[in-house]
């Protein structure tokens, strides 16, 4: 049975204990959604919060999956393509965003992949990388 670990602002009191321990016991890291700001931080090696610190310390022999989600204009910007390519060059796996009506009202690519797609992809990676 998979262990789900969620990071929230309430969990900041245990940051120091969890920050690097997650990399030791987690079989897979899923970042969903991955917004443009955090994408830029991870691609640049910035680690100024719990998530980016865990990613920076992540054991690259284990799968890291990410689900970009941002508005269409941000998604289509050339910097975004470079940053996604950088993450892929680290061996991270993109679960591509989709086109639909976004929360901002725009219609276009940039919405996070459907939850069923994300779950199916995670299951595939867990089966490929058993304990």
TrEMBL record:
Q: Which family does it belong to?
A: Belongs to the HFCD (homooligomeric flavin containing Cys decarboxylase) superfamily.
Q: In the UniProt record, does the keyword Transferase occur?
A: no
Does the record bear Transit peptide in its keywords? no
Gene Ontology molecular functions = FMN binding; phosphopantothenoylcysteine decarboxylase activity
The record's listing under Gene3D superfamilies reads: Flavin prenyltransferase-like
GO CC aspect terms: phosphopantothenoylcysteine decarboxylase complex
* GO BP, one annotated term: coenzyme A biosynthetic process
Origin superkingdom: Eukaryota
Under the heading InterPro entries, the entry gives: Flavin_trans-like, Flavoprotein
**Keywords, sorted A to Z:** Coenzyme A biosynthesis
From the Swiss-Prot or TrEMBL record, give the protein name. Phosphopantothenoylcysteine decarboxylase-like isoform X2
Domain Flavoprotein per the UniProt entry, residue ranges: 11-124
